[in-house]
Design brief:
By secondary structure, this protein is mostly helical. The protein has one domain: Up-down Bundle (3 helical TM bundles of succinate and fumarate reductases). Helices cover 72% and strands 0% of the residues. The chain binds protoporphyrin IX containing FE.
Length: 142
């Protein structure tokens, strides 16, 4: 006979509060991600010649405009936190050993934080004009 265990209740009031915010975050970030991700895909891969337009010059041109830096930065932060929190839910649902659960969740957040820091550095410090062998071909560097 298959035994279905009673769902585990949050360990403390603080944990319950965190779960509630996590639940809400998944829905709110999901709404933003719908616009950000599909907007990103349509603009980059469908409009103006589609995928053939993607090149270093295309990225340099896009990131010359702060609007696209904010768009891509938001997508990076929201999607990484959303994906990591979603994976945390899955880990909590499926791991039975407490130590393993903690190690997996800790690893998830470390990877998430590292990718957010690296990605944010790329988006905020990107300068296509530093390499003179390429910059003379780019209108944004003139
Ligand atoms: C198109 C935009 C997206 C929308 C509207 C969306 C929406 C949602 C919602 C509402 C949930 C909660 C489901 C639940 O609690 O039962 C969820 C879970 C999840 N999402 Fe997203 N999401 C989007 C994009 C993404 C992206 C880009 C990633 C990866 C980086 C991702 C990874 C996950 C994961 C791992 C879960 C947990 C699944 C589970 O609990 O079984 N989602 N998503």
């Amino acid at each position: 006979m298959v035994v279905i265990e009673t769902p585990r209740s949050p360990r403390s009031r603080k944990a319950a509060k965190f779960e509630r915010w996590g639940w809400l975050y998944m829905r709110i970030s999901g709404m933003f991600l719908l616009v950000l991700i599909f907007g990103h895909l349509i603009i980059n891969l469908v409009m103006n010649g589609g995928i053939t337009q993607i090149s270093f010059a295309f990225v340099a041109g896009k990131w010359a405009d702060p609007f696209w830096k904010i768009w891509d930065g938001l997508m990076l932060w929201l999607a990484l936190i959303h994906g990591t929190n979603g994976m945390r839910t899955i880990v909590n649902d499926y791991t039975e050993r407490e130590t393993l659960r903690k190690v997996l969740n800790y690893t998830l957040w470390v990877v998430c934080a590292s990718l957010i820091i690296l990605g944010t550095l790329v988006v905020t410090t990107f300068d296509p004009c530093v390499d003179s062998s390429v910059s003379h071909t780019l209108s944004v560097c003139k």
